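Annex B. Sample input.
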Amino acid sequence: MYSQIPTNIITGFLGVGKTTAIQYLLNHKPVDERWAVLVNEFGEVGIDASLLGNEQHATGVFMREVPGGCMCCAAGIPMQVALSQLIRQAKPDRILIEPTGLGHPLEVIRVLQQPHYQDVLDLRSTITLVDARKLSDSRYTENDTFNQQLQVADLVIAHKTDLYIAAETEQLIQYLQTLGSDAPVINCTEGQLSLQWLEAASKHSGVTQSESSHHHDHFQADDRLPECGYLRKDNQSDGYYSSGWIFSPEFEFDFGKLEPLLMGIEAERLKAVFITDEGIFAFNMAESVLKVQALDEVMDSRIEVIGSEPSNWSGLEQQLLQIAVRY
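Annex B, continued. Sample output.
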């Protein structure tokens, strides 16, 4: 029904800047092309679409989220459903797929290589973003997902190179060799990926199917809000935990108290969109740096925190409620 659609996977570990990179690509795509973005989040509360600016049909951008940590669970059914909807509704000229930073990209590739996609998708380069400074931290180098993201890459982007102070890029090249990867390494800052990098062919055309080798726990899947006007969702996998909250649009948060509250949270990752008394804002925190961006509109307020110590945010729900008014 469709000609083969060029499809790229943009992967990388938590906080490396995948969302920033995809936003840059969307802002620089050919004006006459329709692009579709499939986003997977580790947490059960979808936020990335809001951070990416929601769907921008007028500029040819279509988005779909698959929250819950792993697009490839249950033989890839959640991913296949979302991907089919994107293809049918957007009729895109290109598809970008962003697995969660804690996701196993090889299993996503296996889903894309299933026979019913062979005449639909043209799998191009898998691009892995990595902050080479993390190679000095055994929590990364001993993490199977971190290493797999590098091993599957057709192109490795040494990201945030403006923050490097030593020969981190050279160390990255050497580390890739120990993983058996000869993928080229390119320095990059602020997510400024070149459109040309998307065009390379994938080395995974011969990947065969196999059973999933990992699991994670889902606790609550229903997005319907109870009478209190908010709900919490949790997820757990491979030593990481996520907690997320959805608040009805009836809640308005005190921006002056919200920002310092979020800055004080100890977590590997924080993403949020809030309706406040000063407007609507997106919050994005990695490496203890909180970035704030104004938004035009959102359906509700949402927050997701990810880390290895869930006790660090055990009181967050009550703290949020204390700085909110429900109208």
